[in-house]
Amino acid sequence: MDYRTFSKPKLWANVAGGVICYIMFAYELYARLKNDSSIISSLLFLFLAVNCTFRVFSYAKLNSIKKRMENDSQFVKAERRQSIIINIFSNATAVLCLLVFLIHHITIKGTSVAFDAFLGICAICFSVILVQSIQNLKRFDRL
Known about the structure:
Oligomer: single chain
Helix content: over 70%
Radius of gyration: 18 Å
Order of helices and strands: HHHH
């Protein structure tokens, strides 16, 4: 979804996505604990749910900013800034998710070194994007 502009359909899509991900997280966690297996795979749904929840709160924050501002150009600037923040949060979530799965995969005996390298490279790529997004936010705030 394009988060440069916020709309109610995007809000409801994130609410629905968050609810579904929380339900899937709870189901996966219950199944993993019942079978006495690793709960790491259920964390994927938790990461996605937290991401959707953050986007819903971002929408609410922007909505309150919109009500307070008289000038549309100020709101567009606030909307753009919030879009960068969502990008930073999403990339940080991706890095965290990849690192959790990388650490989990490394601890399993007899795993593929190529897959570990792939996860590591993906984590590094998302980290680079995260650093660039943080720099973009700093530049944006200076303007």
